[in-house]
Amino acid sequence: MGVSREGASHLREPVITLELGRSPQLGAGLREVLAEWLGDEELPAGHARSEQLLFQGLGVTSWPHLHDEAAHVSAWQDGDDIVLEPHRSGGSRGDQKGFEPLERRDVRVNKDADDVELGRALAEALARCETRSPS
Q: If you ran DSSP here, which 8-state letter would residue 95 be given?
């Protein structure tokens, strides 16, 4: 699982892949990733290895393939809330490529929410994501 905020991805081991229907595991995974968030630090050593583990876990081969297939949510803590920000995926080519935040679609949940509630909030944020239109 990676955390992204303002375009910077921080991948950490272990790489976690979870089924969307499993809200307690999603919530626990998100909580683990948020605990690792250290602000604006440099990418950790071994980042390329973590990328490969991420690609393996998601069944993709590269960032362009991931951009074509993935929904992306940024997550951070704001006071007592965890903010989950859905993105639009423009795929990996063209003027709209990459992920862009979707304004006013954030999902907020209290930082003390249990893993089930946190997982449901993450699933809701993922459902609000937009993917590229088929060509």
A: T
Q: Are 107 and 124 in contact (CB under 8 A)?
A: yes
CB atoms closer than 10 angstroms to residue 52: 13
- pTM higher than the cut 0.90: no
Identity of the residue numbered 120: R
Backbone dihedral angles phi then psi of residue 101, each to the nearest 5 degrees: -60, 145
Report yes or no: 71 and 29 within 8 Å, Cβ to Cβ.
Answer: no
Strands 2-5 and 8-11, sheet pairing: antiparallel
Q: Which of 103, 69, 58, 54 is nearest to 83 (CA)?
A: 103
User: Can you read off the two tokens belonging to residue 57?
Assistant: 């876990």
Q: Tens of pLDDT along 32-54? A: 777 776 454 555 555 566 677 77
